[in-house]
Amino acid sequence: MSGNILHFYCGGNTAKGFANLFDSSLQDLRRLYILKGGPGTGKSGVIRAVGDAMVRSGHDVWYIHCASDNDSLDGVVAPGLGVGIVDGTSPHVVEPRLPGAVEQYVNLGEAWDASALADRRSEIEALNDQIKLAYDRAYAGFAEALRIHDDWEKIYIENMDFEEADRLTREYIGSLFPNSGTGKKSRVDRRFLGAATPSGAVDFVPNLTEGLKRRILIKGRPGSGKSTLLKKVAAAATERGYDVEIYHCGFDPNSLDMVIVRELGFAIFDSTAPHEYFPERESDEILDMYARCIKPGTDEAHADAIRDLKQRYSSKMKESIGHLATAKSLHDELERIYGQAMNFSVVDSARERIRREIDAIAERYV
Fold this sequence. Notes:
Elements: E1 5-9, E2 11-14, E3 17-20, H1 22-25, E4 31-36, H2 43-56, E5 61-65, E6 73-78, E7 83-87, E8 103-107, H3 114-118, H4 121-157, H5 162-176, E9 188-192, E10 194-197, E11 200-203, H6 205-209, E12 214-219, H7 226-239, E13 244-248, E14 256-261, E15 266-270, E16 285-288, H8 289-293, H9 298-301, H10 303-340, H11 344-365
Parallel strand pairs: 1-5, 4-7, 4-8, 9-13, 12-15, 12-16
Antiparallel strand pairs: 2-3, 5-6, 6-7, 10-11, 13-14, 14-15
Helix pairs in contact: 2-11, 4-10, 5-7
């Protein structure tokens, strides 16, 4: 019987630059393999192959996707085994806590022909400079989009009934949590449910909420209190000792997009663009923050300003995604250079060694 797979991101291309939440998903592991090596050295392939093997063996796994390459993985974790494998190269550098005892470095750079790469040094340097410039432009664009979004939010914040928002929050916390807690310490996993990628906005909401008995889809406008409500729900979960998955916004990592408490079988999430969903199960609920907390007629009274802000925001986001696509294209060229200098039989041997070691861990602990 195959294991179950959860898909999410631990890194994001955001308005604050590259945001890294990797450490959260790597807590309490028995063994963590940190892959080193340049682009095109087979890190994602090793991660996927080992992850697929664990799934076929019946283990549940988490696939950590790469926000900068829609076809790549940054890591895989088998929580039941206490095992993980991650790409430990920039920008998602993973710092070891107990090197040797828990973390094991795997240097795939041992498989490349250094002299062949040295002959193409100037080309590699030029590509790296161009990639950095593309990312700098993307992050600058996202930052400008956030400033526009802040102005958009301000319209609704100035027309917000904060007392009603507080009542609404208390109402939902009361309906989501039993009166008593668990008596244990909460585990908190911080992740991204989606990301800005070279192919545009991508999210894994359907996968992450599959099998949950209750889904609360929050509707509203920018600044209507969605993230604040989610932060209070997450705090209530941790205070009561429930394990909680906190999904940050892939655009503004200071905001939240979703909270899941699997012990209680619920997910509550921002269900507006770019991750807009509608009820498709009988148990799905709509929570409309605009209807409950914003002064009636706000959309109509500020229609011209909202239309302008929305257009400017969308234009800047599209421009920034274009820079990510440029970075991806340049990175593909870099991968081809490194790939031509690789002895992939060495990578295959490293992959098989990792698989054997994980099989031994499974026999010992499962």
